[in-house]
Amino acid sequence: MYTQNVREGYRMFKERRFFRQLYESTRLPFTPPYGGLPVKFRTYIGDPIPYDPNITAEELVEKTKTAIQTLISKHQTIPGSIWKALLERFDKRCKSD
Q1: Are 68 and 46 within 8 A, CB to CB?
Q2: What is the per-residue pLDDT across 27-70, written as a single tens digit (0 to 9) for each?
């Protein structure tokens, strides 16, 4: 399962030096996200990974990573753009994915 435009909807500040100094002085983890932007989220559910009792946990992890990367490469524009994601929100054309 993969949700398109999650990274565009919620971001973290790029300036980390200030927050690192704040953490070093207070020991409180503080990196405020900004977002909640009204971008269009679409959730895609991929093909099921069939059960095979003969594979190891590491092989299952690799199958899962491959399946998720396939969904990402198929449905997400990389690099992402907040402006494109916002414009998709107001696109009147119906997508048939």
Answers
A1: yes
A2: 887 767 677 778 888 899 999 998 899 999 999 999 999 999 99
pTM: 0.63
Cβ-based burial of 78 (10 A; exposed 0-12, middle 13-18, buried ≥19): exposed
Residue 51 burial by Cβ neighbours in a 10 Å radius (0-12, 13-18, 19+) = exposed
Six-digit token pair at 22?
């704040």
Query: Which ranges constitute the DSSP H helices of the chain?
Result: 6-9, 17-26, 57-75, 82-89
Q: Where are the domains of the chain?
A: 2-89
What is the rounded end-to-end Cα distance, in angstroms, of the chain?
15
CA–CA gap between residue 89 and residue 4 (Å, rounded): 12
What does the pLDDT read at residue 39?
A: 85
